[in-house]
Amino acid sequence: MQDRSVVISGVGLWTPQNTITNEELVESYNAWAKVYNDDNEAKIKTGELLAKPFSSADFIAKASGIKSRYIYCKNGVLDIDRMRPKLSVRADDELSHQAEMAVNAAKKALLEANKTAADIDMVIVACAYTQRSYPAIAIEVQAALGINGQAFDMLVACSAATFALQRAHDAIASGSSRGVLVINPELTSPQVNYTDRDSHFIFGDVATAIVLEAAKTCQSEHSYTILGSKCVTSFSNNIRSNFGYTTRVTDEDPYEADKLFHQNGRKVFKEVCPMAAEHIESHLSSLDIGVTQLRRWWLHQANINMNLLISKRLLGREATLDEAPIVLDRFANTASAGSIIAFSEHHKDLVAGDIGVICSFGAGYSIGSLVIQKRD
Ligand code: CO8
Questions:
Q1: Which one of 121, 241, 256, 369 has the largest count of C-beta atoms within 10 Å of its C-beta?
Q2: Cα 315 to ligand 1 centre (Å)
Q3: How many domains does the chain contain in total?
Q4: pLDDT tens across 108-137, in order?
């Protein structure tokens, strides 16, 4: 009988050239906060304004596991008169910034899968933000790579990659697509509030990509059968950005804190960990797989303590770094790309038959998982 299963046959990771360490970020934020407090001394004294608290590199590393992050455009971020990247404007006939990131990651994934543009007929750009609404970034990427068929963008915050992988799996399983590229160009820095002590350290920029195809066409050295996928959403206001295309006509200030990423981090931590643990357990059980059968957990990378807690709820002990790798220290939270970076860096040592789970969790709330098995 013909093998009708769908496989992951290639993964690509592209990182920007520049990085920002916690120390650099904290030095700039604290200098900015000092100027703010000095300039507003009178109002702070009367209670009209709150003094800006100082940040600490030690706190960041301990509370989150983050030590450094990649940044697409470092220019402007550490400048206390700007506190945001200064991206160049590209003309309509130039490749956009986000499409460039996506193309870089996609080429690496195609190479690993041993595929060319001719083998792909669907491109999904899945991430937390796209830099414009239309034409879709995915269609620009499709044209840049010379791919036929269809392309579209998908926004599901931190779960964009897993949700898109489910769409890709279903398209191949149904026979409507032969090969799909799922790309996650996470250009998060434009939405980070670098003047907010509670969130200035959380995010980094990166792009990841995955090639999916039918098992029968796979020629990759490292490939994984998708045993199942499960995606759920449940509305929450605890992680939010209010910037949108209507901001211009509501006459709101696009620099207001509520137009940028903001969250109730404590609540997110408390609510999402049990949700993610239950999600993984029920997904595995629907496939008759026990938690202890998992060789590897490629978990979303938001906070090291979240990942340890999730594994502890399921295993009764914290997972080791070999079981549940952490890439947060070098990459920070890269929204939907986090679990794919972990997969990209930690999959080649698995042997045929090993089972792992890719799982994302984040704004929405949204949780997505794929249970995969290494092939011969
Ligand atoms: N430096 C020094 N002290 C600090 C700092 C800092 N930078 N920040 C907070 N503190 C202080 C606080 O003021 C507090 O002091 P006190 O006890 O005196 O009140 C103390 O440290 C503890 O503060 P918290 O309780 O806030 O600290 P936590 O231990 O909870 O850690 C975290 C904060 C790291 C944010 C943590 O809560 C966390 O990681 N939560 C999970 C959040 C999460 O996973 N969110 C997901 C967001 S990503 C997502 O969904 C995708 C969105 C789309 C992408 C957006 C791209 C821009």
A1: 369
A2: 26
A3: 1
A4: 999 999 999 999 999 999 999 999 999 999
- Residue 192: what are its φ and ψ, rounded to 5°? -85, 135
Q: Is residue 187 in some structural domain?
A: no
| Mean pLDDT within 277-301 | 97
Q: Confirm whether 353 is domain-assigned.
A: yes
The yes-or-no answer on residue 273 being catalytic is no
* Domain encompassing residue 239: 224-374
Atom 13 of ligand 1: nearest residue by CA position = 198
Question: Is 125 among the domain residues?
Answer: no
Exposure of 2 by Cβ count < 10 A (0-12 exposed, 13-18 middle, 19+ buried)? exposed
| Gap between the terminal Cα atoms of the chain | 18
Beta bridge mates, 296:
356
The single-letter code of the amino acid at 251 is D
pLDDT in tens, 142-173: 999 999 999 999 999 999 999 999 999 999 99
Residue 254: burial class (beta carbons within 10 Å; 0-12, 13-18, 19+):
exposed
CA 200 to centroid of ligand 1, rounded, Å: 10
